[in-house]
Write a structure and sequence with these properties.
This protein has 207 residues and is mainly alpha-helical. It contains 10 helices and no strands.
Length: 207
């Protein structure tokens, strides 16, 4: 029995036929996850939003050549990865050096916030707020590919196999990147974590 068609891929096939409502539905679903990914890699919200817009421009421009060879989420995150890494290379430096430039103009200005798909119960909200900030800071110190693997791992719709396809490496290499990244983050976050609290109370980084 043939596997059912990925619903998002089905929408993209409608886009291929000129259906703008299908395109808008895909943009509504994936815009925030793509922006979040770009922001965590670049630490610049304006740049993240601009690159996310470019992702959807690429998606629309590629519609007439689109073929269902993988889940739509894998395809669109692969486009996002390429644009993101191109931007990092264009900057000519490691993104760990990048802090939202809008904050540097005014030290008293609160950092820009971005919506995340993960939610936490009220008793954990204080811990989450402080720990999430430390996680974002620690992420900037990871090598680009480890960082991207961790960021993609937070996307619930992506399996390890799909993350591997986005990264262009094997599943075992992907799991190794994620493991090393998590261990580095745990080491950096030791002062902010109670014993055994990483999985139970800390914000979810990955499966």
């Amino acid at each position: 029995m043939a596997e059912p068609l990925d619903p998002d891929a089905a929408l993209m096939l409608l886009v291929k036929r000129g259906d703008m409502k299908a395109f808008e539905a895909l943009a509504d679903k994936y815009k925030q996850p793509i922006v979040n990914m770009m922001y965590r890699m670049l630490r610049d919200m304006d740049e993240a939003e601009d690159l996310a817009q470019n992702v959807f421009i690429r998606v629309y421009q590629s519609a007439d050549r689109y073929e269902v060879t993988a889940k739509f989420s894998t395809w669109i995150f692969t486009i996002a990865r390429r644009l993101c890494l191109n931007e990092i290379r264009r900057r000519g430096r490691h993104p760990a050096e990048s802090i939202d430039s809008s904050q540097s103009d005014n030290e008293d200005q609160a950092p820009r916030q971005f919506e995340d798909v993960k939610t936490f119960s009220p008793p954990e909200s204080i811990l989450h707020g402080e720990l999430a900030q430390k996680i974002e800071e620690a992420l900037t110190h990871l090598p680009d590919k480890q960082r991207l693997a961790i960021v993609l791992c937070r996307q619930d719709e992506l399996s390890y196999e799909e993350i591997a396809r986005v990264l262009g490496c094997s599943v075992s290499a992907t799991k190794s990147l994620i493991h090393r990244g998590r261990e580095t983050l745990k080491d950096r976050l030791k002062p902010y974590l109670q014993s055994g609290a990483w999985e139970e109370k800390g914000p979810k980084l990955c499966r």
